[in-house]
Structure formats: C-alpha cells, structure tokens
Fold:
Amino acid sequence: MDFESGGPSVVKSIRQRELLNGWLRLYAREQSLPRIAEYQPERLEEEKPDLVYYTVEADRDPPRFTIQSEGTRMSSAYGHTGKGHYLDAYVGPRLAPYVMPVYYECVRRKLPVYTVAHIDDTYGRIVAYERLLMPFSNGGAVTDVLASLKTICEDGGFEIKNLMRGNDTLPRPKIRAVIDRDLSYRAPGRIPARDVIEFN
Structure:
C-alpha cells in the first residue's frame, strides 16, 4: 500500500485539524512522540463519539492493536462494539487488507497518518470515511494510537449502521498520506513573520 507525503493541510475536517494541532503542539516541544496522558486538546470531550483509543504491541510483527473504546460511531459502522478485541480480528479478513496497513504505517513511521475512502451505505449513497491516526509513546516505540473517524455524505443523510459490513462493495481509497511535513506547530490565524508586509 502506497502513502503520499503530506502536511497538516491535507486533513479536510476542521475538527480533525484541531485534534492534529493538539498533537503537533506536544510533538514540537521535543520533536518526539508525546505521551497519551499529555494529550488534552480543546473540545476533546465533544469528539469522543468519533474517537477510538488503541494500545499497541509494537514488539510484535506485525504490531497488534487492542481496542480500548466502546460506544463510538465505529461500533455502529461495524455493527458491534470492539472493546478488548484486537483490531485485525474485529474488522475481519475481508476488510483487514484495507484497514491494517494504515495502522502499521503509523507505527512504523511514528507519525500521524490520514486517509479518505469512499464507502457505499446500505442504500447505495457514497459516504466519505475520513480517518486520522495519531501515535503516542512512553519513550521509544509507539504504545498508543488515537484514531479520529469521520463520516460525511454530500447527499446529506446516510445510514451509519453496518456501514462497513452492510454491502458487497469494498472501501475505495482516495487519499493515503503520512503527515511528515510542516510538523512545527503554528497557531491558527497567525501570520509567520517572514510573510508580514510592512507599509511605509
């Protein structure tokens, strides 16, 4: 699976960009992965329905991801909660080839990964599935991954229940990017000094 190189601007969702900015603030201090306990961006509570926490066994090949969240929109999309299950077993053999390489790349690169895929709901409406993965560590290997999962339909309403399992079509990848550029955090709305134009 190929991944393009991208900066934070590749992320479409404003809320996901805010979450990424929170990660970048922590990363920029030491140029190393932050600890999950340090991550407390604004409006984190509001985002919880779209967030999934994973603990990572990075010493395994490939790494294993244990789902630590329940009651999220991902549970609706897959038809049942996954808390306590390995991610690869939860998504199943049909979807694992589309899902797992994204998580493996996040752990391998120790950087955020952003993807967009199109999925058909049970009524045939096209849903954009936007996924942002952010890695965390207690020092060294990745120990945790936080995923923000957004679903958007240009036609308006859509059926999220069993979105990932409810039809015969597989996800159609549109964007797969490792966020490895412009990793120095810049507060939104600020103009870098070099871009300021002085008028005399």
